[in-house]
Amino acid sequence: MRTDDWLADTRTSYDTVAADYADVVRASLARDPYLRGALAMFAGMVEDGPVVDVGCGPGHVTAHLRDLGVDAFGVDLSPGMVAVARRNHPGPRFEVGSMTDLDLPDASVAGLLAWWSLIHVPDELVATVFGQFRRVLRLGGPVLLGFHVGDESRLKTEGYGGHPMKVHVHLRRPDRVAGWLRDAGFTVEARLLLGTDEQPSALLFARL
Question: What is the reported pLDDT for 50?
Fold first, then answer.
């Protein structure tokens, strides 16, 4: 699959479901103390400077980081998601952009979050994405990645609110993602496994 093909499919899919997706995840942090705790740890690791939420979706996590005192802003591939984020959370800055080619200066952010947004990136492009993360992050800056755990890729054809979608969801083992991070120059400092055996997820804390 060409880069522009999966990016276009992902953008169109999330434009279509943006409003319904925002409704689904609106209270997700309030329901999960482990996710809130992980974000609080991440916030405590950030030194002075901006933090980018890459693949921010409807902006609820970006806004939560702001509530924790972090100068967070969001970037998302979907203009529809960015519009919802701006409407629901007028405080933070939200921009349209792709994690494969971040429109940010070198060493311009003090921390980086990818909250279940890597799940649509094909394996062969993860190194490109992590290279972008390394380029924009300041030395010593923390990274927090969240993702689904598994060994398969699924094609999602129907999404939130019953709308049509066309996105591949890639499930990955923490060891594999950690290896990609190390190859990109990051040091993995902690891992947290979440969820049930039927629906496992993982969080990786790393630092440049």
Answer: 98
The contacts of residue 87 (CB under 8 Å, 6+ apart) are: none
What domains can you pick out in the chain, each with its CATH number? 3-146+176-207 (3.40.50.150)
pLDDT (tens digit per residue) in 68-88? 999 999 999 999 999 999 999
pTM for this one? 0.94
Residues of the chain predicted below pLDDT 50: none
- Yes or no: say if 149 and 177 are a contact pair by the CB < 8 Å rule: no
Spatial neighbors of 33 by CB under 8 A, at least 6 apart, are none
